[in-house]
Amino acid sequence: MKNKTLTLLLVICGYLGYSQSKLDGYIETGLKNNEVIKQHNFDINKSMYALKEARSLFYPSLSLNGTYTKGEGGRTIDIPVGDMLNPVYNTLNQITNSNAFPMLENQSVLINPDNFYDAKIHTTMPLLNFEIIYNKRIKSQQTTLQKIELEIYQRELVKDIKIAYYKYLQSLEGIKIYEDALALVKENQRVNHSLFKNDKINRTAVLRSDNEVIRITANLETAKHVSNNARAYFNFLLNQKLDTEIMVDEINENIPNALVEGKTENREELKKLEQVKELNHNVSKLTKSHWFPTLSGFADFGVQDFDFEMNKDSRYYFAGLGLEWNIFSGNKNKYKLKQVEEDNKKINSQIDNVKQQLQLQFQVTQNNLKSALEQFYADNDQKESAKKYNEDVTKLYKEGQAIYIELLDAQNQWVNAQLNTNLSLYNTWIAFAELERANASFTFKN
After folding, report:
1. Contact 305, 129 (CB under 8 A)
2. What domain range includes position 92?
3. Which key words tag this protein in UniProt (predicted)?
């Protein structure tokens, strides 16, 4: 009993040892063509450019600036040059008995420069700025978050593709079962009509055989519609024409067993929350960085003069350092930091909650797979019994030792057993796909 229970727990169905190349190819196609994945890639590219933008803030920036001013009127600065120098010049002229020192007039200079130009290359560079440092780290983590979200969607898509594929195979097998059943009831119909003509059976058996043909035909048509819908949905997931033919793999009913170990700690959902926690930690540091000073340097290299003249005296440079230290901001940063701390508590709570949810999901899907496998074993045994029972009753009916109702009951049991086995077989594969998703065990190709 213990060995049987252990065997039932070893319930990974096939992929670990059985290669399904067609399905693998469809998964690659789905991952390549899916529009949502393309949109995620666009978001990742956008995040990468945002990261490069954050890195560019560490480099110096250059700009070419130029101004030209033309002015007249306005405020002036009065310079009493004549009042200061004319007495001196007058004395010198008397001493030298000449007019070598002319009299000067007082000057009035406009504050606004007239016909003046200034052209320069302005350079700035951050020397100490923690805000830039933590901003770059946050952008990098946001890019990582985008990639993790893409992986989460890819795993969901792989699961959906697998389940849709198995349901399509299930529908094909259902069509085959109904086609075989239709051939069987048509043969019964032919035999019963022949026996009725020879007065060996009554009309009741003939009418019942006719009704069975009608019923199985209707079920076959329904199965075909179900299959067409399954094919359309599968092609929809692959982003291709809905009526595209699907190449199928031959799935062996001998389901291999493999030990399933819970590895929910590898789930991208947890990685995402851990990344959010790290990002929030850097947001906290970014908030604290506003308490530290920032230091930057600047330098100007240019020319300036009046009347568009240019000579060696027109050239100049101007350089310096800029320091900014926020002394008081009304406790704004303090309250921001409190908000970040509350976010961090919330994230820790989410991590604990998600861990439990993922573990529960794993256990539920594992138990579902166990139940699906047990159901398959039971249906498969019933199918074998129904097959033998149908063969025995068919033989007795041909020998005239069984009535048609008994034959019909045996055949219906045989058809239903096949349908149930087909249903439980692919339900097992579907349960495996769900367990694989819960365990994040599917390996993506690079």
Report:
1. no
2. 74-112
3. Cell outer membrane, Coiled coil, Membrane, Transmembrane, Transmembrane beta strand, Transport
